[in-house]
Amino acid sequence: MAIDWYPLLFSPILKERIWGGTKLSSLLYKDIVSQTTGESWEISTVPGDISIVRNGQLAGKSLEELLYIDPKALLGNKVYQKFGTTFPLLFKFLDAKEDLSIQLHPNDELARIRHNSFGKTEMWYVMQADPDSRIIVGFDKEASPEEYLYHLEHKTLTKILKEIKVAPGDVFFLETGTIHAIGAGIVIAEIQQTSDITYRVYDWDRVDAEGKSRELHIDLALDAIDYTVSNAKCEYAKIVNTSNPIVDCPYFTTRFIPLDGELVFQKTTDSFTVLVCTEGTFSIRANGTMMTFQKGDAVLIPAIMTDFELNGTASLLEIFIS
Q1: Which of 6, 41, 73, 181 could form a disulfide with 304 if both were Cys (CB 3.0 to 4.6 A apart)?
Q2: Catalytic status, residue 200
Q3: Active-site residue (options: 200, 214, 255, 285)
């Protein structure tokens, strides 16, 4: 089957979470069906949560199907060489009405041995933040496993963790092993390796509607934690109509584009590109056709599409694999 490729939009995969709210609807136009919707998975090949195309002639086909039909055209030559037919990234929006659990993610080696999975290096872009909202990222000074366990046992873990107040536009890059939590009142765009492995170490002693607390992973986490101080916050330029570098790591590269008017886009066939719209509206013109997108859209541009134009007034995250 020959495919006439174009920018792909997928149906959101909505996740109820004990800490979720309704901002994915009010801010990002997602069709939520509960008052505790915590996550919208925009592009995913996590088993059981495979994204389905919702625009254009490929509507109804799964991302997995497209990867099987023509992986090089979709993923790019370099990405295909490294990952085969596996889509290596997962894109989400999160609405934290309440604090998320204090947690961390294992590195590639631990995740492969224990879970046959990738690790979970991730990046957060803060889209909205209530006054005085904050996140937890790493320790406030270098810690030891013994000190960490003491505070965990005595429910004083937050005393040795670093809290950071946040504002829209803030970016945090979280290496695997970094202990962290998104605080209440924050909406985040998250870019991460394709993995759903999380070690939860403290959940604020809360219980669900049935009086049950969520599972913790104290033992698994112990040798996965990075006990050093994390410098997770990323500073970056915001030059209009320019791809401003934010994060460049082995798993993904992220740039920020403040779009105002027209921007001609030229790239190689090495990697797919994803454009996440965090504010405004924009259009993509390619191969004689134009498609329009809005805040809350994560658009997958196949690697084979090397020349196109962006037009509009929007804030965009540009993600690809170097």
Answers
A1: 73
A2: yes
A3: 200
